[in-house]
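Technical appendix A lists one of the benchmark inputs used to test multi-chain prediction within the project. The record comprises two sequence entries:
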Amino acid sequence: MSGLAMPKPDAETLRRRAEIVADMRIIVPGEGVVDTANEMRAFESDGLTAYRQLPLVVVLPETVAQVSRVLKYCNERNIRVVPRGSGTSLSGGALPLEDAVLLVMSRFNRILQIDYPNRIVVAQPGVTNLGITTAVEQEGFYYAPDPSSQIACSIGGNVAENSGGVHCLKYGLTANNVLSIEMVLMNGEVVRLGGSHLDQEGYDLLGVMTGSEGLLGVVTEVTVRILKKPETARALLIGFPTSEQGGQCVADIIGAGIIPGGMEMMDRPAIHAAEDFVHAGYPLDVEALLIVELDGPSVEVDHLIGLVEAIAYRNGSTTCRISQSEQERLSFWAGRKAAFPAVGRISPDYYCMDGTIPRKELPRVLAGMRDLSAKYGLGVANVFHAGDGNLHPLILYDANVPGELDKAESFGADILRLCVEVGGVLTGEHGVGVEKRDLMPEMFNQIDLDQQMRVKCAFDPNHLLNPGKVFPQLRRCAELGRMHVHRGQVAFPDIPRF
Amino acid sequence: MTTFSPSTSTEVLSTIQWAAAEESPLELLGHGSKRGIGRPLQTEHTLDLSKLTGVTLYEPAELVLSAKAGTPLAEIEQLLAENGQQFAFEPMDYGPLLGGEPGQGGKNGTIGGVLASNLSGPRRLKAGAARDHILGVAAVSGRGEAFKSGGRVVKNVTGYDLSKLMANSWGTLAVLTDVTFKVLPAAETEVTLAIRGLLDEAAVAAMALALGSSAEVSSAAHLPERIAARVAGGKHGSDAATLLRVEGFGPSVVYRIEALKQLLGKAGPLEEIAGEASNAIWRDIRDCRPFADGGTRPVWRVSMAPSQAHHMVMALRMQAAVDAFYDWQGGLVWLSMREGDPEADLLRGLIRKHGGGHATLVRASAPHRAALPVFEPQPPHLAALSARLKAEFDPKNILNPGRMAAGAGSATLARSTEGAAS
């Protein structure tokens, strides 16, 4: 593990491990408790594989009552808990801690209700993202957010990370597609936020829970909205001599009032890696490749394809192919969807970043990345959710070369600083986790972070749930609770007491 | 009684620092367009945010707009319209219902108020509410600390989403000073398909059928017979009207309306209403115009599962005289209580019995608002969590104290009714 400081393990908890394991077996009988190093190995890391840690014990509950009892037990004994869905987090959100129970929600794998008139599905949190679509696709429905890990990632994990995907420009993120969750607080209390209706009463706790990275509660049930599949979808594959032209084309498409179902860009290194890997027929003589997908009734799609083609031409596109069949549309996507493994073939290791920037800053950020690439002596390939400004630079390195991982991480941190500098953010969809935790002060000052931690205090005052994630420095809730206000120099002298 | 009228974020901060140090509660006001919603406040001082104005960033190509929280919504909507854009969530104007006039003198509410009350409109069904379009905020907590959350980009999961937490918080957590919203292109064309003469049950079935099709219906409302004449100046007659709005590019709208006609041809007589006439109908539905009679009879805004709400209304009718109409495919019910009694317990009990949801007493006399929970009471664990959250933002309870529920510090009182567990 490179120099990442995690909370100091609690000696008392480690000493009482055997007793805790035995108690967990009472709460979750059967196969639900895993405590040998060998068996726990499968859980030692998530999608951010550079970091590994065996947990205290792995617990796989099957019922809400068990989740509630585990959390209450741990809360009363000051034992830390790390919740985990499918373990596909790219930011280390599910990284275990040596002294923490790893609460794995994978046995919550049933769909509980499909309601077509109200267009909702109620699922347990361990159901995969794709599993929801699979359950309803026969009737022509689907669940819109589609993170690229959708075959494996769980809907509970999607809530924790507010997952996106290529379709979120038009159809929104997880937060816009979840109606309700049931969750268990660290003290064991079970609460339900929202329902099968729109908008939660009271404070928007559902909005705060979505994207809270497992620090506020453990999700035990999720209600999502499903949509009718668009009648048809077609894509354009457009090449540009410069990334500036590609970026301007994206701006002009949106400026024309068109919100495509998906709009993805790749830079030259990514195009070449992808083409070498899947032979999608990508042009190799362009600096930027844009995939624009339009969905809806065919009359609309045909109309918009004409508009987009004209916009591309005006922006100096050198190639523009329009899919004439479903097979061709999928072939356009094949390279983009295989971009990560394709880059994995040209480099022993790669490190995937996830900043978001205002779209217009793309040329500046790409240029900055080229400079950084030269500075660090490491290659970088870029795939870009162009419609919403979410960049995924893939930094190429070799973990077997001493010092290269550290160099890649420094390079990545510099890219994210650049994103923030141009008005963007540290993470668009992968989450802060442990990975970007120490970069949070680049975006937030101490007051901002304190207010976020106070939200944590309302849910989990002892900081027992997923500690060491998101916040660079944990401050005790009692300390955060103190008021430091003094009478301000108010510009309203008419107050008698001034 | 003092009214503070800060015109900069710094002045807001020093005002709150003073109020926190003095533990002196403030009523937060923009234009006062929604002042009649919530428990009446009895604070010594008022914080008037209507001078904290100005659009600070608008980049149409980036689909983003930032403004100081007191900027009039009307002014921003005008600016967006000039650029062919809009807030897709279609924020309603409470003016007509609560006694004001729509957009009069630009006083139909501030952009901060839009978020604080999580406004939306008929397009909520497809496009979401204010909470779905907020990208970032700057605010001052009741602790007298200026904090920010979010940013100006659509995709952002950096830290907790405190911007969403401001939605529907009615000024009880923090004073918004700056908001950044996502904006979207306005539709090129709009056509409404009306099915005439349906009863509630048939209307709800027709709307579910339409929304379950790929016609991308953006709004679906049902105006029963007594109500239909109260929109768009009555020019569409008084027969019950089940309304389906389709928006987008011209050829697509034509095609999708045709598809809906095929799908619903047997449901009842169909009419097509296009352009401004369509627009006028949805504006009136959005603003609850049918109950904007200048009176004070109680009006409820109820959100339930679309397939359930009309059953609840039917059950309610057996015990109370109500006028009702439906938006959001039937899931949003506007209820006007004809006899002047809000019947809060009866209504909320029936909502729970029919699959749950929530009811907000959006129009009522001050005594009713003081005596009854205006906002849906929450189950005990959830109410306690909300109260803890309120205390983390506003430990001295100086921001709109009691507006969302009686009792110091608690955002919402626990449900008193027996057997009310979720």
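Residues 111-228 of chain A form a domain with the Uridine Diphospho-n-acetylenolpyruvylglucosamine Reductase; domain 3 fold (CATH 3.30.465.10). The mean pLDDT of chain A is 93. Comparable benchmark entries are summarised in Table A2.
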